[in-house]
Amino acid sequence: MRTALITGxxxxxxxxAVRVFAKAGWRVVTTGRRKERLDALVAELxxxxxxxxxxxxxxxxxxxxxxxxxxxxFRAFDLLVNNAGLALGTAPAQSASLDQWKTxxxxxxxxxxxxxxxxxxxxxxxxxxxxxxxxxxxxxxYPGGNVYGGTKAFVRQFSLGLRSDLAGTGVRVTxxxxxxxxxxxxxxxxxxxxxxxxxxxxxxxxxxxxDIAETLLWVAELPPHLNINTLELMPVSQSFAGFQVARS
Length: 248
What we know:
Layout: E1 3-6, H1 12-23, E2 27-32, H2 35-45, E3 50-54, H3 60-68, E4 79-82, H4 98-125, E5 129-133, H5 146-165, E6 172-178, E7 181-182, H6 185-189, H7 194-201, E8 207-208, H8 209-220, E9 230-233
Parallel strand pairs: 1-2, 1-4, 2-3, 4-5, 5-6, 6-9, 7-8
Helix pairs in contact: 1-8, 4-5
């Protein structure tokens, strides 16, 4: 039985992925800060299929302690899904919060590379796979995207760099780059503004966490000689942003 480590399993894509992988016969370890949500997933899906490790991905000591405390059969990973991440704020760069910028970098970049580096020797030994969740925000700029878009561009490029370095090891690396997915993403970004979330997704028929989770499973279960380098997904209703023109 293969084992996946899925970060950010308390909501959205991560939560959906835990369910999809567990129901497909994988063992799953999932992480997040909200222990009660992780515990609910374990209760729903069964401790023989899912184990929870509650910690903030930015806290390396807490991360290591939580992973070391897992049952033995859940400690050898065949797949790492780096899903934990967030966007904070929608302000233009000149008025954005530096603290929010640093939190996004610490979570979306530093924590991701730290966990990846920790697990790389094991993933190489097991000829495993890494799936990093990037975003179309890393490919197409938009007003207010600034540092969030920059972190996701890093995730894409880091994934391609990993792929280059891991050539010949059998380890597969994929960057998944979704567009509009209706999750708690906008609530987090706007400090809980439900109206902003409803306005963004209303009438757009956006993708769901389940849509992306099914895509992750498809990538993970491809034959071992196939690698999806990058995969960009959008709802049909969404397309690339147009150019901006500032007129006098």
